[in-house]
């Protein structure tokens, strides 16, 4: 056994091909993850620039467990702060979004400007000469805790790490290029919702990197040849193996001997849609890619599937519960027909999505089956035992291994 | 909702609302599309999406065919832990919109009981309906299900 000095959290010897089940329910690890991953050397998704177009506009979000305010400052820059007053720790912004001229804590009226500087404290000088803060109290010593902020194509990211590398370096050139390719026009929000999953966040982090499961678990897609592994596609990664991009070109699918021989539950040839307008699409990107899902460490997805564009942000809530926030996007220049096609296709994704709803259940299936297990591990060897791109096939778990390699490095496990 | 609705019509519409939830709660989902006109619209969305004017919600069916596809997928493709609903519909408001068309609004609560035995409040909200009389039956031309919460517990597979 390896895993450093903490024998309670020892990792099996098989590197990234084995993950001990206890990591999916251990409360101590959950606390360390907050510090060393979410508040550690990563860029976390915070929201979209179109949500805060004008100075004073704000949204709230979470980085792991930590509540944050994301706002547009007077100079047009984006600021992000921990949503917690320096005084007694109350949330300052308690609405999901809004517009403010400054940030006022509801508890004792401490006022911060849009750059997070403490500007005034109620009754600082007391009332009629009595009470008040000590004479040496210095407003400038108590600003809000600030995150570093960076943006790419309207997506806002924040980091608690003061020496964080630039966002583009974190993402790597391939992922940067694909984000720029996907959000290539001004976007607009078409809808949002969240999905509460009764599983540890890492089960979904793995699921969204698992290019092996979709055509097997999500049998609806396979029935209609939307995402069979026999369609042309593969897996790209950044050089460090932190993030990945899985892509497919739907119209290249061949009748697959492997599939037919396996007699998959998912591949029921007698089945046809009563209304095929559900998957009516148009070729929107020149590269012909009909499905591309980017997964950024620790747990953020940007996907384009046919004409559905969606962002999925995972927020861990407890060791055993995670909330997945869906934001469906269209583009500012969409006409009514395109919006209607995106609306029909939205049936494929989200908490009721034909190709995604099972992901809400499968993590719970695992979580229930591993309860209390301290010895056993997973087995992750599809496509080999290492981490690297898989340009020709999605029948691999290389991205899952990439997640665990990064996780272990950041956690010191 | 301007003109008063005569008692017989009110009873017929209330019966439509009741038969609809019994159909779902009794797992007679194959009959669910028949509560709509052929090109009927069905949308499950959230209060936030509805008030923001965002068109995409949780589930959308543009005509009976898409509703049939929902049921077929549920029966034959989708993997989920079996569960049933119990709808409680209340506070029904009915207004005569035009000719044979009625605007109906009601509140609902849905309890979900999983195969393992746990019953939870799955969701609550309101139905906004356009109901029409067709061939002597009352049918939904449009049914919008507006959930108060934006958070779906695990997944939504059975229609609301």
List the helices and strands and how they pair.
The complex is a heterodimer of chains A (413) and B (160).
Chain A: H1 27-38, E1 44-48, E2 57-63, E3 66-72, E4 78-82, E5 97-99, E6 103-104, E7 111-112, E8 118-120, E9 146-152, E10 155-159, H2 167-171, H3 173-182, E11 187-197, H4 201-207, H5 214-217, H6 219-223, E12 232-237, E13 244-249, H7 257-262, E14 291-296, E15 300-305, E16 308-318, E17 321-331, H8 336-345, H9 357-369, H10 398-411
Antiparallel strand pairs in A: 1-10, 2-3, 2-5, 3-4, 4-9, 6-7, 7-8, 9-10, 11-17, 12-13, 13-14, 14-15, 15-16, 16-17
Chain B: H1 7-25, E1 36-46, H2 47-52, E2 59-62, H3 64-76, E3 83-98, E4 101-114, E5 119-134, E6 137-147, E7 151-153
Parallel strand pairs in B: 1-6
Antiparallel strand pairs in B: 1-2, 3-4, 4-5, 5-6
Ends distance of chain A: 11 Å
Write the CATH fold name of the largest domain in chain A: Naphthalene 1,2-dioxygenase Alpha Subunit, Chain A, domain 1
* Helix and strand composition category of chain B: alpha+beta
Spatial sequence of strands, sheet with the most strands of chain B: 2-1-6-5-4-3
Report the CATH superfamily of the largest domain in chain A.
Answer: Naphthalene 1,2-dioxygenase Alpha Subunit, Chain A, domain 1
- Regions of chain B with pLDDT < 50 over 5+ consecutive residues? none
Instruction: Give the proportion of residues in helices of chain B.
Output: 10-25%
How many structural units, i.e. domains of chain A? 2
- Rounded average pLDDT of chain A: 90
The number of distinct helices of chain B, counting runs of at least 4 residues, comes to 3
Query: Assembly type of the shown chains?
Result: heterodimer
Q: How much β-strand is present in the residues of chain B?
A: over 45%
Shape of chain A: globular
Average of per-residue pLDDT values of chain B: 95
Distance between the termini of chain B: 24 Å
Radius of gyration of chain B: 16 Å
Greatest interface by residues involved = A-B, 43 and 38 residues
């Amino acid at each position: 056994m390896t895993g450093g000095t903490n024998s309670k959290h020892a990792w099996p010897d098989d590197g990234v091909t084995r993950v001990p089940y206890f990591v999916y329910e251990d409360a101590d690890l959950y606390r360390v993850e907050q510090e060393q991953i979410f508040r550690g050397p990563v860029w976390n998704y915070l929201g979209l620039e179109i949500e805060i177009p004008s100075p004073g506009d704000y949204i709230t979000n979470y980085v792991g467990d930590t509540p944050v305010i994301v706002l547009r400052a007077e100079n047009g820059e984006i600021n992000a702060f921990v949503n917690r007053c320096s005084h007694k720790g109350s949330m300052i912004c308690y609405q999901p979004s809004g517009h403010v001229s400054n940030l006022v804590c509801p508890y004792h009226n401490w006022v911060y400007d849009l750059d997070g500087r403490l500007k005034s404290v109620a009754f600082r000088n007391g009332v009629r000469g009595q009470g008040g803060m000590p004479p040496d109290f210095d407003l400038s010593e108590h600003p809000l805790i600030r995150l570093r902020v960076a943006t790419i194509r309207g997506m806002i990211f924040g980091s608690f790490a003061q020496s964080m590398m630039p966002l583009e370096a974190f993402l790597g050139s391939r992922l940067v290029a694909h984000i720029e390719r996907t959000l290539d026009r001004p976007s607009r929000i078409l809808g949002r919702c969240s999905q509460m999953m009764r599983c540890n966040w890492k089960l979904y982090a793995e699921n969204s990197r698992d290019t092996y499961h979709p055509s097997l678990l999500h049998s609806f897609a396979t029935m209609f040849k939307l995402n069979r592994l026999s369609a042309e596609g593969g897996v790209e990664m950044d050089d460090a193996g932190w993030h990945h991009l899985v892509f497919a070109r739907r119209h290249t699918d061949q009748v697959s001997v492997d599939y037919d021989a396996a007699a998959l539950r998912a591949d029921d040839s007698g089945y046809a849609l009563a209304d095929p307008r559900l998957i009516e699409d148009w070729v929107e990107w020149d590269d012909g890619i009909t499905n591309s899902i980017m997964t950024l460490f620790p747990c953020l997805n940007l996907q384009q599937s046919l004409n559905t564009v969606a962002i999925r942000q995972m927020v861990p809530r407890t060791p055993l519960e995670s909330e997945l926030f869906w934001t469906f996007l269209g583009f500012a220049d969409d006409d009514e027909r395109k919006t209607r096609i995106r609306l029909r296709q939205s049936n494929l994704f989200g908490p009721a999505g034909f190709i995604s709803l099972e992901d809400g259940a499968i993590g719970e299936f695992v979580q229930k089956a591993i309860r209390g297990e301290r010895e056993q591990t997973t087995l992750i060897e599809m496509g080999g035992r290492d981490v690297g791109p898989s340009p020709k096939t999605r029948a691999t778990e290389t991205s899952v291994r990439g997640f665990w390699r990064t996780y272990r490095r950041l956690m010191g496990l | 909702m301007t003109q008063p609705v005569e008692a017989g019509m009110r009873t017929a519409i209330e019966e439509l609302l009741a038969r609809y939830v019994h159909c779902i709660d009794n797992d007679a989902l194959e009959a669910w599309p028949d509560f709509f006109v052929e090109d009927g619209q069905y949308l499950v969305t959230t209060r936030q999406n509805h008030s923001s004017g965002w068109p995409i919600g949780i589930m959308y069916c543009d005509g009976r065919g898409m509703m049939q596809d929902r049921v077929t997928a549920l029966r034959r493709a989708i993997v989920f832990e079996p569960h049933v609903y119990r709808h409680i519909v209340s506070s029904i408001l009915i207004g005569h919109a035009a000719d044979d068309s009625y605007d109906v609004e009601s509140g609902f609560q849905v309890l979900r009981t999983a195969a393992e035995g746990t019953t939870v409040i799955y969701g609550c909200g309101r139905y906004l309906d356009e109901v029409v009389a067709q061939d002597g039956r009352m049918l939904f031309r449009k049914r919008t299900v507006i959930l108060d919460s934006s958070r779906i517990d695990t997944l939504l597979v059975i229609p609301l």
